[in-house]
Every structure is written in C-alpha cells, then in structure tokens.
Amino acid sequence: MITITSAELYTWVASFLWPLTRILGLISVAPLFGNVSVPARLKLGLGVMLAIVIAPTVPTLPAMDPMSLPGLLILLQQLVIGLAMGFAMRIVFASIELAGEVSSMTMGLGFAVFYDPQSRGRSSAISQFLALLTMMVYLATNMHLVLLSTLAHSFTSLPISAATLSGEGFRHLAGWGAKIFSAGIQLSLPIVAALLITNIALGILTRAAPALNLFGIGFPITIGVGFLMLALSLPYLATPMTRLLQDGIDAIQQITAAMVPKPR
Fold first, then answer.
1. Does the record carry Transmembrane as a key word (predicted)?
2. 172 or 60, which is more confident
3. How many domains does the chain have?
C-alpha cells in the first residue's frame, strides 16, 4: 500500500505552485504573452505547460506548507519576481512607443491617436506602427523564446527560498526604467532633427515672404518630411531594435542576479 505523508504532499504542491506563480507573473506583463487580446485561458494554459517542464529542474525548495503564512509570502515573492522580469522587457517596447509619440507630435499628428490594447490607453499612429514593427523584430529574432529561456534559468540564478529579496534588484529595475527616455529620444532624433531644420526653413521663408500662408503650406510639408525621414530610417531600425531587445534580456539577468539575498 502506498502511503503519502503530509510533508510529501506539501512538497509536491509547492514544487509546482511556486514556479507557476513566477511564470504567470512574467506572462501577465511580458510583451506578446501579456497582450490583452490573448485570452486568459491561453495564458494560464501556457503557464501550466511551462511549469510542468520547468518544475522538475528547479533546485531544492523550502520544506514548508505552501498555504501557511511563510508559504504565502514565498508565493507573493515569486509573483513579484515574475512581474519584474516581464516589466523589464516591457520597458523596451515603451521606449520605442515613446519614440513614435515624439515623432508624431513633432510632425503635427498629435490628433491621429488610436486605442492601444497593450497599455489600455491612447497612442499615436506612428507609435502604433513602430510598436508593431518592434513586435515583428521581437518574433523574427526569437526573443520571445530567449525570454522564456531566461525565465527558466532564473530558477537557478535566483532560487526559490524563504529569504528576503535584496533591494539591489529593484534599484536595477528602476535604473533600467530610464531607458524609456534615453532610447526613445535617440530613436526619434533623426525625424526630430529633420523637422527642426524644416521648421527653421519655413520660419525664414515666412519672414522673407509674409504673404505666404504658413499654416496652409507648413502642415503638409512637415508631415511629408516626417514620413520621408521615417521611410528612409526604416531599413536601419532593425539593428537598434534588436540591440534594445537584447539589452532587455541582459537587464532581466542583472535584475534577477541582484535580487539574490545577501548572506548576513
């Protein structure tokens, strides 16, 4: 007769529940997986499948009841780790969306906004275009698979334990958030610079010929120059986008490594 002790039962439940929580935390936030258009059942099914594959490779877990207070604290800790990993990759997409917003506002397309299901807010047409382009690069370079691989390796670099997480990891995550502004401005700089020169030229033309209707000719010219610069820069955008996505993976690894509890 097979007998199962309560300690063994707790170990089996915890060995599946705790990794599943970290996985679901990443899936709920990470690009592509966390999109609002993806059904919740599909996200849960993907998380369960990944947990079934990853759980047997997870290092030794704390021997405690997962439904006890310490067990629930570990559960919450794994959720925070997964959310931080997914949010670090989401920052890359946010920086590219900011580049589109800056370019769109400079071109005079601030009125051309659409509903963004990812952020559940309104974003400009150029921002949506660059976000879709980044998603295609994200899939073409298999970064979504690299992200899942990084998630699997995180159980080794940041094992599941009852120890308190180090605050260095959250400091790295906050510092990585600055990438939204630096990368966004750098990506939009060619369009912004070209439009600045265009506006200066239009200002000089207006001073030279005051009879010209600046609002009549300025608006189509700035939009045309903006689209022209966007078309010229498209062949070269794949390289910085790929580099940004790889930087996001590196940032996730640094964040998880910095979260490892320090010995007292």
1. yes
2. 172
3. 1
